[in-house]
Design a protein that fits this description.
The complex is a heterotrimer. Chain A is an alpha+beta fold. Helices cover 18% and strands 46% of the residues of chain A. In chain A, strands 6-5-4-3-2-1-13-12-11-10-9-8-7 form a 13-stranded antiparallel beta sheet. About 4% of the residues of chain A have low confidence. The chains are: A alpha+beta, B alpha+beta, C alpha+beta.
Chain lengths: 250, 409, 408
């Protein structure tokens, strides 16, 4: 999610800031940007609130990430779901259910099912790295807000890209703070929006602490992530992104 | 009146062979219709029963809106108690509770998304035919045992057999992860690949525990053999759930609309054929009635000359037709009834029916339906047509001129 | 016989002595003949439609699969559809069309919905000769070549997915490397068939597009074969099965046993129906003939007194019956033909569409008059008709002249 935005921005900025570049070098630049981004690691703790008209559920979780390819999410509360989690490597996803001590690979046919019962689909959580190949990006707006430059990027999927959206519009600050991600269908109707706020400076990086995914037109249904702790450039243990780790915490 | 009756009776038997042939025609038509309609309706019964006894039941109680949006939260609270209460109050045992969810089932080799249903095994057996189609292993033992049964196609796809373990993972009612591992205690083969691939069953209490349902479920299934009494049962159910305005009862044709239409289509086309037959028979005997009037022109002429009113002659002729028809219909109806009763007891099988029946776990023999409606409707239609055809010659009498009439030979 | 012209002219004139009576019985007989032919045509139409639907709806006359495919229809259970040895066995004179396909489970998604479906990757030209798709396209176009990258889905599926022609959908399936493969495709065509179940279950792309998606070059899930006629199906199937023992080769009747049963049941029913209709008519025929004889008792008595043999009278009456039957058949056949002509494609039973769906039949049932059915109806009427009219004819010939003449 936010990683995507950052990557897009990186690519576009690198393209726009450099002198007129041949197509070859643009690709090279993109490769470099990806490789560069690959190195970014993080550890965070967050709460996820699923809100519906008649109920609400709050889960706490820890997350380890490395670049765009790898992430491990582990649930710490409530007790019922403690130690359950999801491991992502490239585009494969596994889920661990502590109750039965089993890891299950989530088949692609479930990729549009909701992740942990939230408004995010498995797909939303998993697919970050295909944005380069599958879309055409362009900056459609840039303005100044509170002395910070804000870019609005329109990403249109390629003809045969495995993307259902008509287009996605991402709003990002120049220092990679993700603000907003809108998903449009192919008739240009807004389907769902991911908004972010509470921007804080942490570890030298500005990030938004709160993100909410909301389906358009359903004001009383949303899912919200609130990051309570985040650290960057953590050196992850070699075994962090393994099935064994998914199964056995610490 | 008595004399007229006497007169009419004797007139009928003036030409015994003709009368008998006419009566045979009518009786034949009546018997045929009684038998065919009985058979048709019996067949429909079989079709409906065959369909609803597999899984859907005759009636279901669900939360409002569940049929269109089967979300796990659209549940019925305290469902087993409700089922029990209804069983006690109606005295009918074939009522069972179910809870439904969606889950990812995995064996060691494969994963599939399927529908998973929590059932009350003891009562599920009385409502659905699936428990009876277990081909390997056995059905579930109790409503809280830890086991699962799956369909043959799914077992094949997952490459598992009885005794193997199945991992289930889905989303509970409260959004939490619902997960469990259960041994496969039986594999069923319902004959419908659709069902086999998509439906697995576990005991209801196990389901409730895994999916955080508490004591809730999603549907109450009601089955009864006497399909005709559906409305009565439905009313009964409505009363028993009346204090919960979130619940409603659904009948089988709301759950499976295609069947009713298929039946209507068949019934309509059946009637097309019956009417054609009745028309042919009516035309056949029209000649008889006409003949019997025209050949008595002289006689009628004399009667008119003697002061008999034309209307009374017409009445006489109608009465003859009436008596003849009445006897013939009675004969035919009784014959048809007898055939129906015979087959109702011994059953009727067509060639090829056995294979179809096996496929769908239905009984292979047809039993004609015997009700007032099924027995009388055919003869009634014949009666109307016959009387109408007798009217034509009767009308002609009104225009009879005595002198001319007497001249006829 | 010398007297043939006499018999025939007498018979003809006798027929029309009592116009009303003759008309009434003729009406009954015409109705009977019409009923026989038209209902037979309708049932035949139903049975043929069902068979057609089965064959057209991708079944074909014969299908070739990997041995394990029918139990587990996944990409792993594919065979080499471009194997020259196999292709050579298909070069039989009785095989007029065949088409190779990939047929695997897949998932299709739009912006709003996801559905499980069956993905069919076809060779457009070959497939056009075999299945319904080309003629069922209601929006957009059929594939013009194997190189196209669009997708064709059913109308109902498009509705369920809340998408339309021209929009992109994403299809996901398992490839030959056991990985998930997915791609976006623009909906280039929408098809509408009478089986809604088909429309929601089957999505079509070209075989080449599937090769790119699934990495399945050279492989096929199934080959569907059409033979010259229904009669040759079994022999072709045996031939192919013998030459390709490692593959599973079956004909439509074992792939779809239900259809076969229904077709057979209809054939059986026809005989019964014809007999019933005739029986209904026969009462009228006998009665009417008896009545005419009764009326003409004196006349017959006179004939005999004048020296005509009883045999002559029998033939006389019989000929009258024959004329009646012939006229009735003539008119009956004609009216039946008219009925079939004026109903165009057939009877539209879409008011009962959900019921038809259940029986896997389309909504328009054509009238199909097969020569053999027509012959059957006509033969039954003539044969039984002559048989039943034998009794009155015989009775007429038994009249004793003295009694007959004195009868009033």
């Amino acid at each position: 999610m936010p990683q995507r935005a950052m990557l897009i921005l990186l690519i576009l900025l690198s393209l726009s800031l450099s002198a007129p570049v041949q197509a070859e070098s643009a690709k090279q630049l993109i490769r470099q940007a990806i490789d560069n981004y690959r190195g970014i690691t993080s550890y965070s703790e967050a709460t996820m609130t699923i809100h519906r008209p008649d109920w609400e559920r709050v889960m706490s979780m820890q997350a380890w990430t490395e670049g765009l390819d790898k992430s491990l999410v582990r649930i710490t509360a409530p007790k019922k779901d403690k130690n359950g989690g999801t491991l992502l490597i490239a585009d494969k996803m596994w889920s661990y259910a502590p109750k039965i001590n089993r890891v299950i690979k989530i088949p692609a046919s479930m990729s549009n099912q909701s992740w942990m019962g939230s408004d995010f689909s498995n797909n939303d959580i998993a697919r970050a790295d295909d944005i380069i190949d599958n879309y055409t990006h362009r900056i459609i707006d840039s303005r100044l807000q509170d002395r910070v430059k804000i870019f609005t990027i329109e990403s249109v999927p390629h003809e045969n890209a495995p993307v259902v959206w008509g287009k996605e519009i991402v709003t990002v600050t120049e220092d990679h703070v993700f603000l907003r991600h809108e998903f449009y269908d192919q008739d240009n109707i807004l389907i769902k929006t991911l908004t972010a706020d509470e921007i804080k400076l942490i570890d030298g990086k500005r990030i938004s602490l709160r993100q909410r995914m909301q389906k358009n037109g359903r004001d009383n249904e949303w899912t919200e992530f609130y990051t309570t702790l985040i650290k960057f450039n953590i050196k992850h243990d070699k075994n962090t992104f393994t099935l064994a780790n998914l199964r056995n915490p610490g | 009146m008595n004399t007229t009756l006497n007169f009419a009776w004797r007139n009928i038997w003036r030409h015994p062979r003709r009368t008998i042939l006419t009566m045979l025609a009518i009786a034949f038509g009546a018997a045929l219709l009684v038998f065919s309609i009985g058979l048709q309706l019996g067949q429909y019964d079989l079709m409906i029963k065959g369909s609803i006894s597999i899984y859907q039941g005759l009636l279901q109680v669900q939360k409002k809106g569940y049929l269109d949006e089967p979300k796990i939260r659209n549940d019925i609270k305290d469902i087993q108690n409700l089922a029990r209460t209804i069983r006690d109050k109606t005295g009918i045992k074939s009522i069972t509770a179910r809870a439904n969810g969606f889950a990812l089932v995995s064996s060691e080799q494969r994963s599939y998304g399927t529908l998973i249903t929590g059932v009350e095994p003891e009562y599920e057996k009385l409502v659905s035919s699936i428990p009876g189609t277990i081909k390997e292993g056995r059905y579930l033992l109790s409503d809280d045992s830890h086991e699962v049964i799956i369909g043959k196609s799914l077992a094949n796809n997952l490459r598992i057999k009885t005794g193997d373990e199945l991992t289930l993972m889905g989303s509970g009612r409260d959004g939490s992860i619902a997960a469990t591992i259960l041994p496969v205690s039986g594999i069923y083969d319902s004959g419908s690949k659709e069902l086999d691939r998509n439906l697995i069953q576990i005991p209801i209490k196990t389901f409730q525990e895994v999916f955080s349902m508490g004591n809730a479920g999603h549907a109450l299934i009601f089955y009864h053999d006497e399909i005709k009494k559906e409305h009565f049962f439905r009313q009964q159910l409505q009363q028993l759930i009346a204090d919960n305005n979130q619940l409603l009862t659904l009948s089988w044709d709301q759950l499976q609309p295609g069947i009713k239409q298929a039946i209507e289509l068949d019934y309509s086309s059946g009637w097309f054929m019956y009417l054609v037959l009745v028309a042919i028979i009516t035309l056949s005997i029209l000649n008889t009635f006409l003949m019997s009037v025209l050949e008595r022109s002289r006689e009628f002429g004399i009667m008119l000359a003697l002061g008999y009113k034309p209307f009374n002659i017409a009445k006489l002729v109608m009465l003859e037709a009436l008596i003849l028809t009445f006897f013939a219909l009675t004969l035919g109806t009784l014959a048809g009834l007898a055939i129906n009763v015979y087959f109702a007891v011994y059953g009727l099988t067509f060639e090829g029916m056995e294979e179809i029946a096996q496929m769908y776990n239905m009984s292979a023999t047809l039993h004609p339906q015997i009700t007032f409606e099924s027995i009388l409707i055919g003869p009634l239609v014949i009666f109307i047509f016959t009387i109408l055809s007798a009217l034509y010659p009767a009308m002609k009498i009104r225009h009879l001129q005595p002198v001319e009439a007497m001249r006829k030979i | 016989m010398r007297s043939l012209p006499l018999i025939t002219s007498l018979a003809w004139r006798n027929l029309w002595r009592n116009k009303r009576r003759t008309m009434v019985i003729l009406f009954a007989m015409v109705l009977g003949v019409w009923a026989m032919i038209v209902t037979a045509a309708f049932m035949r139409g139903m049975a043929i439609q069902m068979l057609d639907d089965t064959v057209n709806n991708l079944t074909g006359h014969i299908q070739i699969h990997h041995k394990n495919y029918l139990d587990d229809p996944v990409i792993e259970n594919s065979f080499f559809g471009n194997d020259t040895a196999l292709l050579n066995t298909l070069k039989l004179p009785d095989i007029i069309h065949w088409s190779s396909r990939i047929r695997v489970p897949a998932v299709i998604s739009s912006e709003r919905e996801t559905r499980g479906v069956v993905l069919l990757a076809i060779e457009p030209e070959a497939e056009a000769n075999i299945s319904f798709l080309k003629n069922a396209i209601t929006e957009g176009q059929y594939f013009s070549s194997n190189d196209e990258n669009g997708i064709i889905i059913g109308k109902k599926l498009a509705q369920n997915l809340e998408t339309r022609l021209g929009k992109r959908v994403v299809v996901m399936s398992q490839n030959t490397k056991n990985e998930i493969a997915d791609s976006g495709y623009r909906i280039s065509g929408i098809y509408d068939t009478s089986g809604e179940g088909m429309e929601t279950d089957f999505i079509f792309i070209t075989k080449r597009a599937a090769e790119q998606l699934l990495d399945s070059t050279g492989l096929s899930s199934e080959i569907a074969v059409i033979t010259r006629s229904l009669d040759t199906v079994l022999s072709v199937q045996k031939n192919l099965a013998a030459k390709n023992p490692e593959l599973d080769i079956q004909d439509w009747s074992s792939l779809q046993p239900y259809t076969k049963l229904v077709v057979e049941m209809y054939s059986d029913f026809q005989y019964v129906w014809h007999l019933i209709v005739f029986l209904a008519m026969s009462f009228g025929i006998i009665n009417t003939l008896l009545m005419t004889i009764y009326e003409r008792t004196r006349e017959f008595g006179l004939f005999q007194a004048l020296g005509l043999k009883p045999g002559f009278i029998l033939v006389q009456v019989w000929t009258e019956a024959l004329f009646m039957l012939t006229i009735a058949l003539f008119i009956g056949n004609f009216v039946s033909w008219l009925t079939v002509m004026t109903t165009g494609d057939g009877i539209d039973v879409s008011a009962f569409s959900q019921g038809m769906e259940l029986a896997q039949m389309s909504n328009i049932i054509p009238f199909v008059i097969l020569f053999e059915d027509l012959l059957l109806a006509n033969i039954i009427v003539i044969a039984l008709g002559l048989l039943t009219s034998l009794y009155p004819a015989w009775k007429a010939s038994q009249l004793v002249p003295a009694d007959a003449i004195t009868r009033i």
